[in-house]
């Protein structure tokens, strides 16, 4: 900080301090809010290096980025319907460091969002028909932003049919129409809303609902006639991204089960299947794992043998032509998909470890069994570190190519999934029952430290992602990965912290909630996640009030009081974390929100 400036604090309440109240004051004494030179330089250089935060020893292996990304969420280029929300979030959520203001700000933000009228001026999308120009844009968005994480559809074959359907005598018209509808459905959240205004006058969520309904109807007309075909497996995979969290029964889990049913019937699940069949089967595995792990529905994990991992040679046909994205992009997205397959394998191994329980309290076994658990955890932790190094190397190579920002967002999304994998590995230890065993206490503390670290990394990756991303670049796969980090940041805000720590925690929380709010504007299911966050906010707030009532401030001022108070705070924190896990489990797995 420059010697010509001094720091000015406007402290109306010591427990409630806005980051904007910490101002740089020139010598004339007039407060002005501005970033320090160090902050500006840090803002320019801080990119996705956050992904490698847990492995500081490997930082030197990463290539320095020469990319200067444009500021994310530029208000001048946001969808007009939601541009007002970001200033709301900035003013409301960042306007308080104290936990006592978070729920009030969150409620007000929801009220403002409800009053925005996202669908004002739009007509219902029944009988939706897209123009050829809009379809072209949607297909382009699909292959650029959705396809890298779920490359089930053969790009070359699909585009060949799309450009001249009457010439493709091998493709069944109805089956290809279903696949087209599924592609349009998957792509809709990834286009600018303005593109819809000139056509059937629909908002993104309306249009997606209408296209899903059309695809669903056509699917059920074709599902038995074309049982086991790649087209049905591909379509069901794409439709598995429908998660409205309402009374609808045919949602994410149903559709991925349908995709697996067709993949098995069509020989795609065979251990030695190759090329497109192998890719489709692994897309089924990844999607099943994303849903089952993300929503804490571990009993829904597919148990059929996964077979060999996909290889670069399996993608040879797709890489034969440069359609929509460059051959370089296809190559690094192929590699990142293979890494994603490996990551989900580690995650499945994590939740299938013996002697542990994710859904209720459990006791650490004695002697050899406890040693076996810790040894297995150590091995999986090491695998995640090695995976992180390989991922960081790939990302460094991609940065050197100066790729589009949307490509970098995809890497951020997978980086978030990596942090979720770390959290999933250690999460069961937070449910360990009270025990006099020093080993159990050690393991529980270690698990909480690991998960807190993963939560900080999640916030850092999210902050970096917001520098690159437009709202249309984000994916519905994100919310389950950030809900526990949101909860842990709320818990940390409820504890005694100095100004600097509270400011940092609040900013990190703001990035996570901003991402969640952005998703709410484009995906039906995000609203349900926000209800779970509301329940968590109330839980943490009530726990904080209860803790304050049980402690005497005068006695806590003594040395003995501080020691006992710290121990009490720790016990209360563990208890709150356990209740938070139950709230998340009930909300995501059982769709029951505790009030």
TrEMBL record:
Keyword Transport among record annotations: no
Domain Xylanolytic transcriptional activator regulatory: 139-387
Keyword terms: Nucleus
Keyword Lipid biosynthesis: no
One GO biological process term: DNA-templated transcription
Molecular function (Gene Ontology), one example: DNA binding
Alphabetical list of InterPro entries matching this protein: Fungal_Detox/Toxin_TFs, XnlR_reg_dom
Protein name stated in the entry: Xylanolytic transcriptional activator regulatory domain-containing protein
Source organism of the structure: Fonsecaea erecta
């Amino acid at each position: 900080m420059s010697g010509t400036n001094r720091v000015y604090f406007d402290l109306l309440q010591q427990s409630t301090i806005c980051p904007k109240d910490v101002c740089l004051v020139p010598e004339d004494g007039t407060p002005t809010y501005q970033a320090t030179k160090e902050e500006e330089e840090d803002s320019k250089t801080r990119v996705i290096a956050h992904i490698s935060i847990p492995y500081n020893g490997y930082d030197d292996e990463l290539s320095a980025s020469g990319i200067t990304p444009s500021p994310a969420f530029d208000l001048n280029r946001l969808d007009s319907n939601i541009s007002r929300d970001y200033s709301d979030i900035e003013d409301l959520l960042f306007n308080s460091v104290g936990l006592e203001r978070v729920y009030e700000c969150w409620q007000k933000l929801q009220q403002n969002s409800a009053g925005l009228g996202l669908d004002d001026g739009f007509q219902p999308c029944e009988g939706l028909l897209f123009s050829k120009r809009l379809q072209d844009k949607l297909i382009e968005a699909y292959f650029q932003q959705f396809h890298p994480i779920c490359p089930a559809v053969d790009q070359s074959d699909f585009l060949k049919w799309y450009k001249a359907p009457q010439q493709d005598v091998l493709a069944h018209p109805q089956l290809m129409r279903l696949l087209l509808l599924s592609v349009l459905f998957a792509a809709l959240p990834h286009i600018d809303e303005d593109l819809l205004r000139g056509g059937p006058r629909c908002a993104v969520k309306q249009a997606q609902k209408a296209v899903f309904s059309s695809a669903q109807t056509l699917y059920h007309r074709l599902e038995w006639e074309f049982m086991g075909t790649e087209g049905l497996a591909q379509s069901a995979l794409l439709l598995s991204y429908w998660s409205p969290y309402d009374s609808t029964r045919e949602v994410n889990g149903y559709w991925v089960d349908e995709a697996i049913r067709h993949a098995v019937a069509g020989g795609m699940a065979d251990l030695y299947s190759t090329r497109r069949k192998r890719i489709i089967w692994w897309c089924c595995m990844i999607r099943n794992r994303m849903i089952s792990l993300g929503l804490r529905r571990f009993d829904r994990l597919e148990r059929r043998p996964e077979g060999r991992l996909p290889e670069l040679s399996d993608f040879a046909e797709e890489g034969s032509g440069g359609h929509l994205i460059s051959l370089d992009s296809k190559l690094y997205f192929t590699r990142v998909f293979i890494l994603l397959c490996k990551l989900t394998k580690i995650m499945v191994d994590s939740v299938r470890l013996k002697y542990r329980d994710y859904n209720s309290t459990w006791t650490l076994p004695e002697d050899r069994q406890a040693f076996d658990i810790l040894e297995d955890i150590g091995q999986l932790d090491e695998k995640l570190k090695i995976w992180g190094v390989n991922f960081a190397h790939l990302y460094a190579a991609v940065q050197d190519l100066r790729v589009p920002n949307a490509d970098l967002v995809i890497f951020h999304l997978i980086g978030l999934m990596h942090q979720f994998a770390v959290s999933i590995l250690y999460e069961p230890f937070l449910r360990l029952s009270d025990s006099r065993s020093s080993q159990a206490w050690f393991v529980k503390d270690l698990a909480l430290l690991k998960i807190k670290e993963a939560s900080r990394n999640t916030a850092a990756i999210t902050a970096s992602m917001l520098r690159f991303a437009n709202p249309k670049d984000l994916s519905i796969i994100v919310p389950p990965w950030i809900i526990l980090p949101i909860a842990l940041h709320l818990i940390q805000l409820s504890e005694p912290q100095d100004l600097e720590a509270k400011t940092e925690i609040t900013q990190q929380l703001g990035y996570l909630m901003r991402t969640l709010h952005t998703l709410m504007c484009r995906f039906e299911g995000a609203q349900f996640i926000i209800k779970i966050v509301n329940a968590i906010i109330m839980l943490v707030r009530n726990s904080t009030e209860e803790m304050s009532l049980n402690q005497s401030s005068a006695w806590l001022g003594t040395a003995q009081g501080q020691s006992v108070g710290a121990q009490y705070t720790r016990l209360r924190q563990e208890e709150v974390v356990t209740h938070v896990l139950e709230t998340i489990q009930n909300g995501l797995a059982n769709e029951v929100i505790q009030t």
